[in-house]
Amino acid sequence: MNINVFSCPKILLTNVRSIRNKVDEFEATLSKYKIDLAVVTETWLNAETENLATIPGYQHFNKMRVGRKGGGVSVYSVDRLIMNHTEHHDQCNFECLWCCITIPNNIRRLKHLYVGAIYYPPAAAGAEQLVSHVIETVDRIRSANHEVPIIILVRKAPIGSSDHVSVLMKPITCLPKNDHFAVKIRPMKDSSMRQFGQWLVDYEWNNVYDLMDTNDKTVMLATTLQNAYYSNFPTELLKMRSTDHPWLTKRVKQLIKQRQKAYVKFGKSSKWKKLRNGVQKAIMDVKKSYYQDAISGLHNSDSSKWHKNVGKLCNLNQKQSFSIPGLNEKETAESINQHFADVCCQLPALDQNNLPAYLPSSQPPPEIYPGQVQRLLQSIKPKKAGHPEDLPAKLLRECAFELAPPITNVFNCALKAGTFPDRWKHATVVPVPKIKGANTCNDLRPISLTPLLARTFETFLVNWIIEDISVKLDSRQFGSRKGASTTHYLISLIDSVLKDTDASLLIEASIPEWVSLDDLDDWCKANNMLPKPSKCHVMTINFLRNASEFQPFTLNNTILECVGNLKLLGVTIQDNMKWDMHVTDIVSKASRKMFALFVMRRSRASVNDLIKVFCCYIRPILEYACPVWHGAITKKLAHKIEAVQKRALRTILGKNYISYDLALEETQLLSLAARRESLVLSFGQGLIKSALHRDMLPPCRKRKLNLRSNGGNLEVPKCKTDRYIVNLLNSK
């Protein structure tokens, strides 16, 4: 092991099925591949044969199976590594062996390595208990030390006559370089803000008012503001490094550099030890000060900055990379741009001659006043992303009063001319992957960043259009409507499915009633809709004993795939109307976010801030659209969800954690089951009070009885199946 490059051990994982008669071959394997650490399962050792499995030059820890023959796990560690058996982690009835390995002569990357040797026999009972034990043990270890090496998995031949394949894990010795790069920024200094504000107060906008053409006005306004912005807010260069921690300061970098020079020149001398201790203390101090300055107390005073700093510290906002094989970055960007442009080119251009006779309107358009524009500009979020040629959103917000008159003039000119300025039609498109591991342009979704002033103008247009057509909108139109959400749509869909299956009716498709399933292809073409067959699936929901078989459905001459489950608006729906796959999905997502709690704990975060991180980033994943599925999950699934919060509280409280009930009381949190009950009740009460969604609930009873039952005032329809009874719209 080359300790001068990267001191991470080479690890072998193997199942030997009795090591007693394979000791010589096992020793030869360790020598041939220069194994530093070996984890062996199914050793079949007992108290009498344990000494027969020792290997010269290796430390050996073993845990035998209790109660019956076979099984057992062992860990072998080369003598130059310091290995300690952490017996307090092995207090369980499973075949688990936990060891802590200290790697000497490693001053930067890896100091401690925790190894868990686990053997779980096929078809054995207690799988959930074993998983819980592993999670709890890992949580305790990560709370104290969270340093993970980089490894590569390589398959090797089995040991002796064993029928199991071994796994060899090698460390990566060529680590990625710390690339330095410079970023141009325009700091929003107070002096620059005052200087720009004074320019706005003194400036006369006659160059905009005197123009008659809408496009000319828009260009003149944008050019004037852009020139003033560039002159009052000069650029600065900010040097950064891709691997820098957010808390890393220039002083800490200098101390690390001095420590490394001392190690190269003097080795582990007293001078090096002094510098090493100084670096460790400096890192602890800057972490604590960074947390106090950048995170602590900001949740109430500046929640946006709090979320930004927490995401940066915990690396919660990871961006997926995308590349096309054989193309460089510029060619990849051109390919993506062409792909998005082709989508629009497939649709026919608007023929104004085919517009209804009453268009364009003979009535003059409404007039916009500066006060209205000012209020909209002041409502812009300071961090809102805009077009590269835009003024920063913060500047538009702060100078709304001075900017309102010229902007209003451009808006009214566009309304009178009946045209949308050409400059506002340009957008910066940000491709966002739809799936993890996107590798084709079809896996990307375009997010268009249009100018902020264009969006402000569109706000007026949208409000007028909605006001005009709101009385004609379908009651089942949930998108882009106030008071409606994805939960409302999913509730309506699931209720209609369960209602029809309860009445032993077959559902053909969830499309407009006036369009049959066979005519869907023609309907899409007539309405300029271009659905992709690869993204369309057929899921049959049928609970009849003698289920009918449907003919394959085709779209664009392509047979659609029949699936047993699909994800709709973030919720996994199964053809048996059960929710085990959805619960497994949300538990997995929430568990991946648990890393944030460990990072925050290492940054000396308070318990209150740890609770806020859990409530903001982890708990919402477990509660999304819970009115859709809460009433239909089993106790086992509810316990699986609750275990995530239990694990989070164990991490938050650390040594102070005694029991789940006491932890809930100390943190003043409700159990997730109680919160779901409250959310469902609140959602139902919202339906009763909503003029838009009141018809989603059963009607009120004609005669109100003074019963203690909740929801006794609603006329609950008769149900034939338990599936429909537990649905929200029929639950009490």
Task: Give an overview of the whole structure.
Helix 18 packs antiparallel against helix 19. A hairpin with a 2-residue loop joins strand 15 (554-555) and strand 16 (558-559). Among the domains are: 11-171, Deoxyribonuclease I, Chain A (4-Layer Sandwich), CATH 3.60.10.10; 506-574, no CATH class; 580-730, no CATH class. The protein has 24 helices and 19 strands. By secondary structure, it is of the alpha+beta class. The longest helix is centred in the middle third of the chain and has 25 residues, at 270-294. Residues 1-6, 147-157 and 505-515 have low confidence and may be disordered. It is globular. The termini are far apart. The protein is 42% helix and 13% strand. A six-stranded mixed sheet has the order 3-4-2-1-9-8, with no helix packed on it. Strands 5-6-7 form a three-stranded antiparallel sheet, with no helix packed on it.
